[in-house]
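Why does residue order matter? Because the sequence determines the fold. Keep that principle in mind as you read this record.
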Amino acid sequence: MMMRLLRVLGALSVVLLSGCAALQATPPTAVHQPMSMRPEMRTPQASQPGAIFQPGFTRPLFEDRRARFVGDIITINLVEQTAASKKSSANAERGSSLDASISALAKVPLAGLAALSASGENTSKFNGKGDAAANNAFTGTITTTVIEVLPNGNLLVSGEKQIAINQGNEFIRFSGIVNPVNVTTSNTVQSVQVADARIEYRANGYIDETQQMGWLHRFFVNVLPF
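Structure:
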């Protein structure tokens, strides 16, 4: 009996530890992977070092310092702001009426039905309205790394910024395709100029967990038909 109790307690401790680890795990992401890349080794253009030129230096003295290689750094200015609204309405109405009467019947069977009348009326109406609106704003700065150079020269960048707070961690992630023409001399680019941009702002910790529906609640929401 004691052995069974110990096994049950051990299993519960493993579950609790795994649950705690899951709470502090990095939130899942949809940005392009990997989120960082080391520079690639390039063959030196000269073999004899000089006072200014060094064979291992990847950029010539008078070359533009804009990012163009894997591992280079590009700073993204997040200036996202979107607004959308939708409004629709529909009206439908239909009506009908019917009147019938028997004015006179003489010398025929059922003459007693004379002066009987019947009337009917039907009315159907439908009204429908719908409104929807959304406003989003995201501002800030994040520095990314070039993780791939596409055949046409465009740069695929990706990066993550982690901010540790005493109640949890916050993650700012960004990835997308940058046209080198839009990169300034200070290696910055606006987020609205990035194609296939993926921007995320996530967090973990017990404050974030309290804002989410529990797994048992989600189970009943998915199963119950009402």
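Residues 64 and 135 are 39 Å apart (CA to CA).
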